[in-house]
Structures are given as C-alpha cells and as structure tokens.
Amino acid sequence: MLLLTFGVTIAGLKLGSFDTDFPTVWNALFNHNAEDPAHFAVLHLRLPRLLLAICVGASLAFCGYLMQAMVNNALADPYILGTASGASFGASFCFFAFTNLTVFGIYLPPFAALLGSFVVTIVVVALGTRSGQLIPSQMLLAGIALTSLIGALTSLITFLSSSEGKLKSVIFWAMGGFEKASWESLPYPATALMLALLVFMFMEKRLNVLLLGPDRAKMLGVNVAQTRWIILITVSVVTGFAVALSGPVGFVGLIIPHVTRGLLGITGKLNLIFCALTGGLFMLICDLLSRIVFPPAGLPVGVVTSLFGVPFFVYLLLKKNYKFN
Amino acid sequence: MPETLSFFQKFFFSFLLTILLSGCGETTEKTLSDSAQKVEANKITVTDDLGRKLEIPAQPKRVMALSAAMTEMLFAVVPDSLIVARTQVCNFPEAALKKPVVNSYPLDLEGLLVLKPEIIFTEDGITSMETAAKIEQLGIPVYFQKYEKVTDIFRGLNDIGKIMRRETEAQKLTDSLQTELNAIENEVKTQELKRALVVINTDPIYVYGRNTLMTDKLEKAGGQNALQENFPQQSPQLTREYVLQLNPGFIFGISQVQNEAFFRLYPELKKVDAYKNKRIFNLNDDLAARPSPRVVESVREIRNYLQK
C-alpha cells in the first residue's frame, strides 16, 4: 500500500498546467531552481497538494474507523459529532461576515472552520454525556439534531448573502478540495494524524474489544469510559484540522473503514494503519482523477469520492458477504 | 326608452360588432433587427436573442428589466415614466433608485402582478427559463437579450428602441457610442497587445474566459485575454499553477476581488509578471460586469490601466 501510494504520488507530480516530464520532476525535487516556474509548481504547488490529499484521506478514514468502533455502529463516520457542519458554519460565517479574509497574513476561513468544528463537537459531546458518562446513542442523536440546526443556520446566512462571489466560495468550500494546500498549513493535520496513529497503535486491542459492546468490554478489563474519551478527543482534533484545510469531503470516513474490515477482517492487527493508508491513497487517486477528468481546476473532490467509492463499496458488501461485527 | 331590443336592433348591433372585430384582425409586417415579427391588432410578434417568439404590445407603456444592465439600457432609451420598477440590484442611473423594487431573486411574482409591466427585459444567464415561464404564466412576456461582443450591446439598445418605438433615440445613442469606441480603437491599434487576466472570484479562482464580452472589451482597449484556451464554461475556474503558467502582464480584479488579499491568499502568484511590475488593478464593478450603455466607459477604463 505504501509503495502504491508512493507510485501514485510520483505520477501525480507530473500532472499540472506546466508540461513536466520525469527528469523535470526529479530536478524540481533534488536540483531545485527557484527561478524555474515549472520547478516551483512541482515543489510548492503539486507536492503539498498531493500530501494534503493523502493526509486528509488518511485522517478521515482513521477517524471513521475509531468512531465506528466507539459507537459500535456501522453507519458512524467522523462527521456524526457535527464536525463537518460546525466547520461549514464557521467557514460560511467567515466568508459572509468579513470583507477582508486575510488578517496579519493569516487566511481566516480554515481557522473559523476549526473553531466551528470544535465548538459544535463540544456541544454534541456535552449533550451526549450524562453524569460524566458518554452515552453513544444519545450522542448520535445529538449529533444528528445539531447537524440539522447548524445546517439550517448555514443555509440562512448563505441565503442572506447578496454576493455571488461569496456564495461560490462557500459552495466550493463545502464540496472539498486541496487547491489551497501549502507547506505552511500541511504540518497541522499531519502532526495531529501522526500523533493519533501512534497513540492508537498501542490501543488497537482495546478498540477491537469495544466492538463486542461496552458490557463485554468492561468484563474483559477495558476502561470503556476512558477509551471513549480518548477516541472522542482524537477524532475532534484530527477531523477538525483535516476539514478546516480541505472542506468536508464526504464518504471517505464511512466507506474506507468498511473496506479495511472487508479486506483484512474485523479485528485485523494492521487495520488502523491499513485504513489510514487506504484512505490516503483513495483520496489521492480521487484528487488526481478529478483533475484528469475536468482540467485544470478539477471536479470538487467530494463528488469524485462518492462517484468512485460507492460502487466499490456496494460490490464489497455484496461479494464478500461482509458484516460489521 | 324600450327595456328590450327588437329583433331588428339585435341583428343590426351583432352585424356592426362583427364588422368591427374583423377589422381588428388585420395584420401588418414590421422588421426588428434580424427577428421576424408581425403586428396583430395591438400586439406584435417578436423573436428575442434566444430565438423565442413572443407576443408583445405594439407600443408598450409599462416596462421593466430583471437585470441591472438592462435597467440601464431601458433608462438610456425609454422615457422614465414608462419604466415601472427596478430590481434590488439596479442602482444606476439615479432615476432608477426612485422606482419601486421588485425582487429578482427570489422573484417577487406578486410585485409583478401589482405593477403589471407589459413586457419584461432580461439577460441570458441572469433569469432562468423556469423563472421566465412563471412570469409568462402571468401573461407578461419576457424578452431575453444576449451579449458576447460590444456591438451586441448596441444591437440590443436598437432592439429596445424598436420595441418601445424609440428607434431614433436608440440609433442616436448607439451612433455616438460607436464613434467613441472607434476613437479608442484607433488610438490603441498600433500599440503592442497586452495580456491581461480578469479575475471574477478569488476563492476559488474564476476568470473571464475567451468567448466573453470582457475579452472583446480587452481587445478594443488594446489588450488581449491572457486566457486563450477554450473552456466549456464562459468563466472557468483556474488553479494557481494555471495562472502561473499563463503569467499575465496585467491582472484586473472585479467584484469582491481585492488585490492585496488575493496575493495574500495565493502568495505563489507573486511570481507572475503582473505582480512583479505592479500592474494589478481593480476595475469598477458595475462597469466591468454589466453589458450596459456604459460599455464604452468600461473600455476606456481598461485602456487607461493598460497604458500604465
């Protein structure tokens, strides 16, 4: 999977508006000439974009896997905490409320999206908690209700806007994309993902036991409450950073964990790493496809993830006789 | 006076009424630019720029437009007293601001019913066919105009003049605009073409494509659209890399595009010649975006920037 991701990344470095062959890509990376616009495009535009696509895909798939394990529900994805709707609201509010979107050299929408996702997630978690104990079913319902409410508020501020340009910005942001990827922003989601992967590599057994249900997990010595809180905090932070930079790309967090379980089994040892790598590769391929099919800007990546991913997902469900737990 | 009419009287009035009504059915022929039209009673049939046949009053007394550009065109050709309303986005000329507002999006159908315009003018791309159909269900014809070249605007003005029976005024206006335009073109025709990119939206980046009125305005102002590739959309979305590869000598921003903010958002684009040579300008929103009688003013504004 790593080799495949590497191969597709190298192929992706060739794809763009400047005509670049492999020697040019090589030189851009290892004999970089800052004055050559093609070298600049390879190193500063294409590579961060590809890495962000991998990072966001991996983050969403990984968080989807965690959420499905936590609530023991096949329909869970990272967005059930209201992360996507909160981020969309934050970004939309920012687009409509501020004339100048860059303050002190900082582009505000990703920060507003991050803030929105955290605030909504905290409210959903608070609503899903009783006496300090997380109640997954209550949290799911709170997530659905709050997502609807925030969605309505986002629609309202969109409707009240008189600027066609701002409408375009909001709509495109909501469909997801990696065009604004940069070396400056990449470390945030990448660091969050790496740390989270590291933590959960040591907690994989706990996750598998959680799939048996909270009661049996407790009987087997798992501190269910603590595990749930760790998952919740991880998912909020990792998804928040991913969504803030790329917009809420749908479906990856739902289907890739199922693909992983379908291919490696429900409690496979390498499930988490494989899930993250598959999510990254899947998103990378979707981004490249979107730009090949509809150059130069590409289709919104969320459209491609659904068009490309759903048929494969359905095939997997039917052919493998796959069950969630 | 008898309370009922005799058989003879009824027959006489029926005969008279039949004669009168049959007289109203006579038709005469008129020509409206390229579109065929027929006069039928006090109605004429015209064909708009989208090829739709419409039956409109022979001499409309109550009109309005659903786009800001067309409101400007109406005010340039038609007496103010015949224009019954404006939309929420119509802000020019000043006389337009005194007219009642009918919302164009979402469309205020009740407002239209109250003001009862006899014909509504609009632009292709501004009003959807679905909206036009709704308006026409109220018995109000919707006349579409379409502009891809500056001369299409002049033709549009003349068409409005013919529909509104103000041919002379419209012709005078377009002649004078054409003279001004010719003067600008003559002035810049020996100069080197300057490649310019006109940014409509920054996030994502949208620019005016090749087959647009803006391209024609740039050419008339002594420039050239830096975007020469044909795209399915009139205003395509571009990536940062595509803009870098185009390397325009000038960048014009319209609408909410703010030059400094644009380059803060995409610092990579500071490598293009336009940024290096400080040839980045904001165009007047309304002049740049509206295909209005102020089109020559817009060409002049672009010409002035291209000469800097």
What's the short story on this structure?
Chain B: Residues 167-194 form a coiled coil. Chain B: It holds the Pfam family Peripla_BP_2. The complex is a heterodimer of chains A (325) and B (308). Chain A is an all-alpha fold.
Description:
The complex is a heterodimer of chains A (325) and B (308). Chain A is mainly alpha-helical. Helix content of chain A is 72%, strand content 2%. In chain A, β3 and β4 form a beta hairpin. Chain B has 2 domains: 120 residues, Nitrogenase molybdenum iron protein domain (Rossmann fold), CATH 3.40.50.1980; 119 residues, Nitrogenase molybdenum iron protein domain (Rossmann fold, 3-Layer(aba) Sandwich). Chain B has 308 residues and is α/β, with parallel strands linked by helices. In chain B, β8 and β9 form a beta hairpin. Chain B starts with 6 loop residues before the first helix and ends with a helix. Chain B is 40% helix and 19% strand. In chain B, α2 crosses α5 and α6 packs parallel to α12. At the A-B interface, α3 and α7 of A face β11, α8 and α9 of B.
Structural class estimated from helices and strands of chain B: alpha/beta
Helix vs. strand class of chain A: mainly alpha
What does the average pLDDT of chain A come to? 88
**Largest sheet report of chain A:** 2 strands, antiparallel
The CATH topology of the largest domain in chain B is Rossmann fold
Shape of chain A: globular
Name given to the CATH homologous superfamily of one domain in chain A: ABC transporter involved in vitamin B12 uptake, BtuC
Oligomeric assembly = heterodimer
Helix content of chain A: over 70%
Radius of gyration of chain A: 20 Å
The proportion of residues in beta strands of chain B is: 15-25%
Which fold name fills CATH's third level, the topology of one domain in chain A?
A: ABC transporter involved in vitamin B12 uptake, BtuC
Count of strand segments of chain B: 13
The sequence of SSEs of chain B as H and E is HEEEEEHHEHEHHEEHEEHEHHEHH
Specify the number of helices of chain A. Answer: 14
Which class of one domain in chain A in CATH terms?
Answer: Mainly Alpha
CATH architecture of the largest domain in chain B: 3-Layer(aba) Sandwich
